[in-house]
Write a structure and sequence with these properties.
Helix 1 packs antiparallel against helix 6 and helix 11 runs parallel beside helix 13. Helices cover 81% and strands 0% of the residues. It is globular, with a radius of gyration of 20 Å. It has 404 residues and is mostly helical. The N terminus and C terminus are likely disordered.
């Protein structure tokens, strides 16, 4: 066998990385496409403000409900099967959302879309992690997950296009994209032994320090992102920012996250996932505190564009720790991805609702201060351990040491 060039380490084929990134982009685009269409659906289905909130929250609720089942599907049936199930469900739910008109159909379609995303994320990331050497896993997962920000930027743009073209044709086109990805899933190779390991995440898994740290980082990423998504637009509006400024802030943040996530993954590989997590936790705490404390819209927009990417990127060292824990405990990578999906979805949905309620009752400083405090407590708890010698540093070392 020909040796790889000096300084190069083997990794997954580029097609698999691109495929995983495409799955992430497609899922996040569906997740964020609804806001421009919400007024149309409110009028079409006669939704009350509470009903509109239920429609908006149905997606993360579906994601949380299917997080563990999606991971177990990847473990039992294989990563390819989990991806195909998720893509087929997303296509069907998209058609229902595009052409449906009753509140029950619309809410059900959004719930199924969220559940489908958990299957595609678990299958796609498990597929990629299984094909990647442990020493490069953080960087490769970070590269794929960094494209989540691109999906979050593309989603509102697609939703705005659907306002013009109509949701039926728009979501029919999205179903076509799912069909193309299903065809790609059928031809990409899966690692040997896929679907042969079945292990439920019991107490032994949850007591593992590395797994617990990965879940905490991922949950904090979802919590800070969910709170900022609610508090920051309201704060910018109070400070007199135009809608274009709000949109531009999120577009800039999304573009920055595409670059930040791979950097966080490389840092996790070279210095350990705990070290990457500490940097991002401090960064995210500052971003959350900036929302109630910034006194001018321009400064807040700049701080958000620079700080929001750290919140989303917390899932990168979290995924690295979960992936290493799966290797250490003999779990399928899909199980680890499912646990990560559950932590993120539950954290994001719960934090968004709590932040909105707290901000309505008092001010945004209370939820922001609470989240910043949690980030700083986690930073103190994530004490980095000594780095291993030799090439097995980073995530590979975490797999042996149980790094937290």
């Amino acid at each position: 066998m020909t040796e790889p060039p000096a300084g190069r380490r083997p990794g997954p084929q580029r097609g698999l990385v691109a495929f995983a990134a495409a799955l992430v982009v497609a899922d996040l685009a569906l997740a964020t496409a609804l806001p421009p269409l919400l007024p149309r659906y409110v009028h079409l289905a006669g939704l009350s403000p509470a009903g509109a909130g239920i429609l908006m929250g149905a997606y993360p609720m579906g994601g949380a409900a299917a997080a563990v089942p999606g991971g177990l599907a990847a473990a039992r049936l294989g990563s390819r099967a989990a991806v195909l199930i998720g893509l087929a469900a997303a296509a069907g739910a998209g058609l229902a959302l595009g052409w449906g008109s009753s509140a029950a159909v619309l809410v059900g379609a959004r719930f199924v879309q969220g559940a489908a995303g958990s299957f595609t994320w678990a299958g796609g990331l498990a597929w990629l992690a299984s094909a990647t050497p442990a020493a490069r896993r953080g960087e490769v997962l970070g590269t794929a997950m960094g494209f989540a920000a691109a999906g979050a930027v593309a989603g509102p743009a697609a939703g705005a296009l659907a306002v013009w073209a109509g949701p039926g044709p728009a979501f029919t086109a999205a179903a076509g994209v799912s069909a193309v990805l299903m065809a790609a899933a059928c031809v990409l190779p899966c690692p040997a032994g896929e679907g042969s390991r079945v292990a439920l995440p019991g107490r032994r898994v949850l007591r593992d320090r590395g797994v617990a740290a990965g879940l905490a980082l991922t949950a904090l990423g979802g919590m800070t992102s969910g709170a900022i998504d609610v508090l920051a637009p309201l704060r910018l509006d109070r400070l007199g920012a135009a809608p274009a400024v709000v949109a531009g802030t999120w577009i800039a943040a999304g573009a920055a996250e595409v670059a930040l996530s791979p950097w966080a993954g490389r840092l996790a590989d070279r210095r350990g996932a705990a070290a990457a997590g500490r940097v991002l936790l401090a960064w995210a705490a500052g971003a959350v505190l900036a929302v109630p404390l910034a006194g001018r819209a321009g400064w807040l927009a700049v701080l958000l564009a620079a700080g929001v990417p750290a919140c989303g990127s917390l899932c990168v060292p979290g995924a690295a720790l979960l992936s290493a824990g799966a290797d250490r405990l003999g779990l399928h990578q899909g199980t680890a991805a499912g646990l990560g999906n559950l932590a993120w979805s539950a954290g994001q949905a719960g934090s968004a609702m709590a932040a909105g309620a707290a901000a309505q009752a008092a001010s945004g400083l209370a939820p922001a201060g609470t989240l910043a405090g949690l980030c700083l407590l986690a930073l103190v708890a994530l004490r980095p351990r000594a780095r291993p010698s030799g090439p097995a540093a980073g995530v590979a070392g975490a797999a042996r040491r149980g790094e937290s």
